[in-house]
Structure prediction request, 110 residues.
Amino acid sequence: MEALTIDFDKYANMSRKQLINALDDAEKKERKIKETYEQNLSMTLQLKAFLKSKIKESLNEPKYYNAKETPIFKELNREIENDPETAKLAEQARLENEKEMQEYQNGNSN
Prediction:
């Protein structure tokens, strides 16, 4: 923010009417500054509250997920349960995966 400088000499020789008008202008300026300050303060307080809630939310999230608890896994399970063909393909893939893992563990991998 820039500093406000006031030339008091400018007001020294003013008439009463000019002084009253200058006072009125100063009061209007004061109200505008207060209004702007309150709006900025309100927005800053809202931002702080939002950031705090996001930080708190992130602290409550688990650091690690069990693969079976992920949304994509749950969605795939629902699809498998609702479609016999998909269930058959998923079972074939699971069996092939188990076979490959068993071969790898036994040292028979290709």
The helical segments are 9-12, 16-60, 71-82, 84-105. Residues 16-60 form the longest helix (45 residues). The mean pLDDT is 88. The chain is about 75% helix and 0% strand.
